[in-house]
Amino acid sequence: MVRYFIWISLVLISIFSAFFGAVDINLHDLSNPDSLGYKIFFFIRLPRVVFAFFAGAILALGGLLFQTLFRNSLMTPYTLGISSGAVLGAGIAIKLGLGTLLFGFGAIEIFGFGGALFSVLLLLYLSYFLKGLGQNSLLLLGIALSFFYTSALMVVFYLGSAIQNDTLIRFTMGSLGVISWQKPVILGFCATFLSIVIYMYRFDLQLFAISSQHATLKGVNIKKTTTILLVVSSFTIGVLVSMSGPIGFVGLVIPHMVSRLYAQSINHLIIKTALFGGMFLIACDTLSRTLNTQSELPIGIITSLIGVPFFIYLLIKK
Amino acid sequence: MIKIKNLTCSYDKNIILQSTDAVIEDDITILGINGSGKSTLAKAICGLLDYKGEILVDATDIKNLTFVQRAKLISYIPAKLDVYDRFITVEEFVLLGRFAHKGGFSTYSQTDKDMAKSMIKLLGIEHLGKHTLNSLSSGEQQLVQIASSLTQQSKIIIFDEPTANLDPKNSKKIAKHIKELKNRYFVILITHDLHLANYIGSEILFLKDKKLQHFKQSDNFFEPKNLSELFGVEFDGMDIKYG
Lengths: 318, 243
Description:
The complex is a heterodimer of chains A (318) and B (243).
Chain A (H helix, E strand, L loop, with lengths): L1 H15 L10 H4 L5 H35 L11 H15 L3 E3 L2 E2 H21 L7 H25 L2 H12 L8 H19 L1 H7 L3 H6 L4 H23 L5 H13 L7 H21 L8 H18 L2
Antiparallel strand pairs in A: 1-2
Chain B lengths: L1 E10 L2 E11 L3 E5 L5 H9 L5 E6 L2 E2 L5 H7 E4 L12 H6 L3 H4 L7 H13 L15 H15 L3 E5 L7 H14 L4 E5 L3 H7 L2 E6 L2 E5 L8 H8 L3 E2 L2 E2 L3
Parallel strand pairs in B: 3-8, 3-9, 6-7, 7-8
Antiparallel strand pairs in B: 1-2, 1-4, 4-5, 9-10, 11-12
């Protein structure tokens, strides 16, 4: 019952989300391509809703993937410092004032991906020395690295000009604001790619979710599979973070919410987690645009303010 | 047949088994004092642990096998199963035994599903099919793990202290299953329970002082005098003398 109520609300909010915001849009505008309402709806609001959907899907899937691979509820790209690495990479690109580079991807995206990939490889490399110390050490390592990247970003701030720093600060607050369809389309490809790869590996992940020993015994090449999945997810998360800045909380909590709502094993939860994460972020973004008409609230604030009470409710309720 | 040649296993700098050899032709029971390396040996055979030397199964060095090939050859049943996934059901868990057989990224076939079902039936745990793994008792978990191993269709099955966490009734049930499986599989049993080892009736591999020592049926392993010598405590029959 709770399940249906939540899904129906999310779907309804997602459908009508593009109609909410600082400027009211009526249905009449939508048939008139010359009206301001038409332009706002099709080139600002709708791309933003689509962007939010794919961003939420990537964040939630990333969380599900990390939690499963490492069998720890706190493991996410965010807590392990992958997002901070991406932010640092993107921050350096902003500081250097780099423009468009290759294949339509901007320098910021490429640096963001580079930062994410660097941090995941460093984490994997260092984790080989953690033999026998368990998952908690890996988590600690990730958190420590995360602090390191954040401090390095402070150095970038310190060296930056006032104008660069303003861009940087807004970037680190996280935002889903996009103009035109380029970013939503790129992110859509990334989200689809990530979903397909995770879905292909769903039975491997089901074994991972039992234990790494069990996965090995049943025929999974753990090192190879972990590396492939981490590199693919770092790629998508790197691209996302370089476009939106860091958005916390979604990756940590959405996978838990979905698994509590359904009480099913991981291979049944992949698509549901992606859809839930996507629509959850649309709902949060809709609120961030409508609560205060003077300016938008940063999206990270809303995700936590709504998500935390809801998560506590799910934790307590059996 | 399993041939162990010049095997050395260690955790960090702590050497557990050192340059030891053995030829295991048929079902075997591995005994030894705590820390003598029983589970270490089993884990080396399963690919869970790096080692120096050679372990050959029917003349194939298992180091050369892929994970999938190894899973088709050997399955391992630990004393206790730690499961992170709180929602996986018995049916799903047993079906995962077919992972190495399904091939690549394909899904499980009807044959795979039928086999999982028939193994669940064979072990008499149909009523647990929809239960989650975490809700089971230790005895039920052992039965589920056996079903999963049978579904894996590996030639060799390793039981690592299967009765360690079980009450007498469940121990008996599991012991019967193990004895039955000896007819169709190469069963390696690791245990501390001398009564169980005696009941299963395989030859004995005793681990002591970082070496493997093979006892054939004619070697009267279960003689109190022999047991006292090996374990370093006095025995009365197959039971230790307390007091």
